[in-house]
Amino acid sequence: MKIVIAGASGFIGRHLVHALADDGHEVVTVGRDGPVTWTDAAAAVDGAGVLINLAGKSVNCRYTDENRDEILRSRVETTRALRHAVEAAAVPPTVWLNASTATIYRHAMDRPNTESTGEFGEGFSVDVARAWEREFFTGDLPGTRRVALRMAIVLGDGPATATLARLAKFGLGGPHIDGWWPQHRRYRGIGDKPTGDGRAPRHRTRGRQRFSWIHIDDVVDAIRFLIERDDLDGAVNLASPHPTDDRTLMRTLRRVVAAPFGLPAYRWMLEPAMWALRTEPELVLKSRWVLPERLIDAGFRFRHPDLEESLATAVPNRRTMGSRDPVAVQPG
């Protein structure tokens, strides 16, 4: 069938384009550059069987005022443009899958967030996610099934994995421990009704904050699965059924990158390190505990449910640690 993918130039988009093209589909990409730009999006959407939207500025950056505004604008406005294209299409797509994020849920240490029991959080990242989904589900599209892909942190040759691997290689491969740091307002709420009190949250997790993740291959497989399952719509969590915690994550990552040691990284160490990497400590300090209830109930099978195997296939420049603890080197 004809599948239109908006925002296909990013990490997930590149994998998805190749996989769906290999499946035999006609894949049309929409972006700022290329044969189909946003100006021509409406014509591309008309007659497509599937529409997938991954567009949005990467959150792997510092949350300056300029970046905050662009993170929100790039998600909401591209989703709105595609919704208008679907509304105007003579033959609208049967299914529209729109990227979202599992960061929409609260910092959770007591129980996991599922689609049926999850609770939304507060602050910048949550406000972006809620505005994104609100724009996506606005209006009536009777001929198009809509699915919001609430993705956990994706392991693969992408920015999140690269950042974690660099921390481990720099010797900061121990647990990430929240603590005191001068207050800032980078995580304050955004949009028409910003949430939170504007302060950066602190949590005494002692490195036990939960880490929900999913391998890029399972993201692609889940999208294939959701295209075929016309009984699934609304929000769907894309996350491994086996979340871990930060201490276990970093211990596993040290084995994979063969780091001889990993210092505990307290917030006062993380803040300058993340500044140098041009990203945010929220990546490792927020407790993300998400389970894929709807995928599991629908019978989806994960290719990479194991954390160590997933990291071994995802981390670049990996090497074995010797005969006592070999790490399988597999294609990424």
From TrEMBL:
Domain NAD-dependent epimerase/dehydratase: 3-117
Gene3D superfamilies registered for this protein in UniProt: NAD(P)-binding Rossmann-like Domain (3.40.50.720)
Residues in DUF1731 domain copies: 280-312
Domain of life: Bacteria
InterPro entries registered for this protein in UniProt: DUF1731, Epimerase_deHydtase, NAD(P)-bd_dom_sf
PANTHER family tied to this protein: EPIMERASE FAMILY PROTEIN SDR39U1 (PTHR11092:SF0), SUGAR NUCLEOTIDE EPIMERASE RELATED (PTHR11092)
Record's protein name: TIGR01777 family oxidoreductase
